[in-house]
Design a protein that fits this description.
Elements: E1 4-16, E2 22-30, E3 33-39, H1 41-44, E4 48-56, H2 63-70, E5 76-84, E6 96-97, H3 99-102, E7 108-114, E8 120-121, H4 123-127, E9 164-165, E10 170-182, E11 187-191, E12 201-205
């Protein structure tokens, strides 16, 4: 059984349930993915398949990758990843995997991607600090504030929340419900939000841990 595919985020929208409730959803393009390599426990120590997503010109990749893609038909791909499988013998290089074969309406999925990068941000935006008074003459608006330790130990303790790089990290949102599938367009519509911006690359997998909703 295949457990996941690569996809990308098209954007957010909303649907109405039969009860008339507005449901926030995210539209994803999931697949088609092509098997580019097969990993087995005998040769690699684990069972998995490597899949490619989003075709690109073979001339746009280096010679080692051109040779790698030659085993699956010669077509090059923008993104590659490995997905765990139960039985690698069910797959062959060049095989195409689509979302409707792996997922169905009503399934729960885990969606992983990189969050939007926001650069260097202060403590209010990065950590949600309240900040100081906004009144005239306050002199304390968006600064971190006191964080020292006086005479002992005379240093800032490790782990304090400080300004710094915000976003652009791998985030996984778990147990999102698949509310609609449109196989002819390779589209999957899931309830809720997923990481990243428009056209961001995602991994969509069956959940390792199913939480009660």
């Amino acid at each position: 059984m295949h457990k996941g595919l690569l996809g990308r985020k098209f954007g957010m929208s909303s649907l109405f349930s039969p009860e008339g409730k507005q449901v926030p959803v995210t539209v994803l393009q999931v697949g088609p993915c092509v098997v580019t390599q097969i990993k087995t426990r005998a040769t690699d120590g684990y069972d998995a398949v490597q899949v490619g997503f989003l075709e690109k010109k073979p001339s746009r990749v280096n010679k080692p990758l051109q040779g790698h893609f030659r085993n699956s038909g010669g077509q090059a791909y923008t993104a590659l990843t490995e997905m765990a499988v139960d039985d690698p013998s069910e797959y062959s290089p060049g095989q195409t995997l689509t979302a409707d074969v792996v997922f169905q309406v009503g399934d729960l999925v885990d969606v992983s991607g990189f969050s939007k990068g926001r650069g260097f941000t202060g403590v209010i935006k990065r950590w949600g600090f309240h900040g100081g008074k906004a009144t005239h003459g306050s002199m304390f608006h968006r600064a971190p504030g006191s964080m020292g330790a006086s005479a002992t130990p005379s240093k800032i303790i490790k782990g304090r929340k400080l300004p710094g790089h915000h976003g652009n990290r791998r985030v996984t949102v778990r147990n999102l419900e698949v509310v609609d599938m449109r196989p002819e367009e390779n589209l999957m519509i899931v309830k809720g939000a997923v990481p990243g911006g428009k056209n961001g690359l995602l991994e969509v997998q069956k959940p390792k841990i199913v939480r009660k909703r």
